[in-house]
Amino acid sequence: MVLSVVLKCIYPPPASAVVSAMTAISFLSMCNAGYMESKGKHMKYSKLWSQADHEKEKSKIPSKKGMFLVYTPAFLAGFASLFLFPDGDFRFTLLRLCVTTHFFKRVLEVLFVHRFSGWMDLEAAITISLSYFLSSTTIIYAQHLTQGLPEPEFDLKYVGILLFLLGISGNLYHHYLLSKLRSEGEKQYKIPRGGLFNKVICPHYLFEIVVFLGISCVSQTLYSCALASGISFYLMGRSYATKKWYESKFEDFPKDVKALVPYIF
After folding, report:
1. What is the largest CA-CA distance in the chain?
2. Assuming Cys at both sites, which of 45, 126, 226, 243 could form a disulfide with 120, CB separation 3.0 to 4.6 Å?
């Protein structure tokens, strides 16, 4: 019964070996990355990457430049798609706007919101950048392949818009709170406060998941569902690792603060 409901919510899988392969690769790779994060094998950026690891790396760049490199190609792919496919239907236009807006926001946050104090492994920056770029181009291409097909029985695009706006607003707000934790020149970490930080240590990840759930509902393709699911699993693993990190660094870390979902996880 669940499968029949799901099938009524998505377009039929496209006759594209590339999209089919990317669907499997995206889901499995993100799930594996989330599992590795939960086991302490972290991506080579942010506070979870230990100082000892920093010193072992020879090719590293300032975190701000690294994160700019991470998000810019995906933003440019989304922006270019608005002109490369001028005749798409309303759903296709919405999807491209969501993808472009999401990564444009990320670029603006790197430039004007986030405070950076460390380094990022160049190889990791290139790998993550390529992953985001491929995800953006694949989700857009998969949507392009639905043009002219009958709409799914259950139309979720308006629900998707609401989820996307909620997610991107909540994510931005909690990134802003994080940016205000430290004064100019400060480098020490602090326990985040305010907003949903009083309930979970990674509310920005929670709203990131909501963003991609919204994009998935706007798109209603198998690839977008796989991508949203994979990102959710990855951020679950990373939030779990983040909570463990804070507990190891701060003896006064609140016992009732969860990792990702208030009162639950």
Report:
1. 58
2. 45
pTM for the predicted model, two decimal places: 0.94
Name the 3-class secondary structure at 121: strand
Residue-level length of the chain: 265
- Whether 196 contacts 167, CB under 8 Å: no
Gap between the terminal Cα atoms of the chain: 28
Long-range contacts of 16-21 (CB under 8 A, 24+ apart): 16/141, 16/142, 16/145, 18/138, 18/141, 19/138, 19/141, 19/142, 19/145, 19/223
Ramachandran angles phi, psi of 237, nearest 5°: -65, -40
CB of 66 closer than 8 Å to CB of 120: yes
Q: Give 59-96 pLDDT, tens digit per residue.
A: 889 999 999 999 999 999 999 999 999 889 999 999 99
Q: What is the CA radius of gyration of the chain?
A: 19
